Amino acid sequence: MSANSFEQSAKLQTPALAAATIALFTIVFYAMIFPFYAGHATTLFMFVASGTLLLGCAAVLHPSFFVVVLASFLTLGFLLKIVAHLTFGAQLIEPVGDFSGSPAQWDMALRFVAAGQFGGVASIILASFIPSHCRTVRSDARGQRRLGNILFGALTLLVVVATSIYVFNYRYAILRIGYPLGIDIDPRAYAVSAFILTWGALLGALALTQWLIELERLRYASLILVASFLGFFSSLTMGSRIQFLLYILTSICIVLWRWRSVERWAEIVVALCTASLFFVLSIAVVSIERNYAFQGGQQMAAQHSSSSRVGQQPALDGTDPLREPPTLATKFEVVTGKSRLIGVLQELRSLVLMRWIGLEGVLTAAGAERQLGRDLLL
Fold first, then answer.
1. 300 CB contacts (<8 Å, ≥6 apart)?
2. How far is the C-alpha of 83 from the C-alpha of 165, rounded, in Å?
3. Which residue has the higher pLDDT, 39 or 12?
4. Which of 44, 101, 160, 195 could be bridged to 200 by S-S, CB 3.0 to 4.6 A?
5. Do residues 363 and 97 lie in contact, with contact meaning Cβ atoms separated by under 8 Å?
């Protein structure tokens, strides 16, 4: 067999193998969920098929590594989470609002998910006709140097703006788990700010960093360092212990996707060690913050402070000095003083799967079906 005929045969076999693999996973996941699902079998099949198609199309067509990462996150947040919940009995950790668990509400929720996942499949197929890795155009050295300077400026500006928004979020709880919105903000501004806080800053920064790597102005370790910096502030200000991990996984996926272009793996190791330190620090700080806020830490701190301030007069302006924001040291003393460290360690086990965002959101929407409609959409 000649080389050309072998290559043509391989090209014909690849789509067939991919289709067979997707079909196999669809059957396996459907068989695992079906005995425990109370809704319609057709709805469940559409949900499972759209989920496996989303991940399969992203892996086979891979128009961009960002698409592959996003599809992987959605698979964890929806398909694998519902397997863990229904098949293996793992309890959902995030709130689901008024979701009652009735067959009708389950069907509605899975229809929401299936519609979104089929939309993702369509967008991946469309994006595969214009893959990002085929659009790099080389120019002369002067043009590349000028472009690199512009990109450096854009990356610096993005990091400064993102850091400012993170600080603003920590102060006013625009998107902070367990805290009510602390400022009156326009819904459109809120949507933009929430996107920047969750994924917008990271995607923009990694895109600019990857562009600078293509121009040979940065190396691949920069992806992990940028993700570590932004992930630390995002995790800290949102009160999310999984957010940092998501940021780092995104940068690692990019490095693995371009592993042939990585020349200095020692720098990757150093960057991963730095990221590990930031991750441990973010886990510790966020765990202290959450345990203090959600388990009566403020009341205990107030009682502890009041016992040592007997006879103290209120401030002249009428404010209560006990209502001043506590420091991190105070929060740590309260949390550890009540022997809550064991509870913190137990909560960290849920980071493996059940903390991935996805299923709970659509369950909450299905539980609020009376409020659904065009008015809510607009």
1. 334, 338
2. 36
3. 39
4. 195
5. yes
Is the confidence at residue 37, as pLDDT, over 90?
A: yes
Tokens standing for residue 83: 């397997």
Burial grade of 154 (CB within 10 A; 0-12, 13-18, 19 or more): middle
Distance of CA 116 to the CA centre of its chain: 17
Find, among 239, 240, 246, the residue nearest to 199 by Cα. Answer: 246
* 212-229 exposure pattern, b = at least 16 Cβ within 10 A, e = fewer: bbbbebbbbbbbbbbbbb
Q: Torsion angle, CA of 183/377/41/25, rounded to 10 degrees?
A: -70
The SS3 assignment for 91 reads coil
Asked whether 243 and 256 are in contact (CB, 8 A), the reply is no
**262-298 exposure pattern, b = at least 16 Cβ within 10 A, e = fewer:** eeeeebbeebbeebeebbeebbebbbbbbbbbeeebb
**Under DSSP, is residue 125 helix (H, G, I), strand (E, B) or coil?**
helix
Against a cut of 0.90, is the pTM above it? Answer: no
Question: Which sign, positive or negative, has the C-alpha torsion 14, 16, 18, 20?
Answer: negative
Angle at 113 between CA 111 and CA 116, to 5 degrees: 110
Taking the alpha carbons of 4, 6, 7, 12 in that order, is the dihedral positive or negative?
Answer: positive
Q: Which amino acid, residue 315?
A: A
Count of alpha carbons within 13 angstroms of residue 17, beta-carbon side = 8
**Interval 265-282: pLDDT, tens:** 999 999 999 999 998 888
172: phi then psi, degrees, rounded to nearest 5: -115, 5
Number of alpha carbons in the 13 Å side-chain half-sphere of residue 106 = 18
State the CB neighbour count (10 A cutoff) for residue 14: 11
User: How far is the C-alpha of 359 from the C-alpha of 328, rounded, in Å?
Assistant: 33
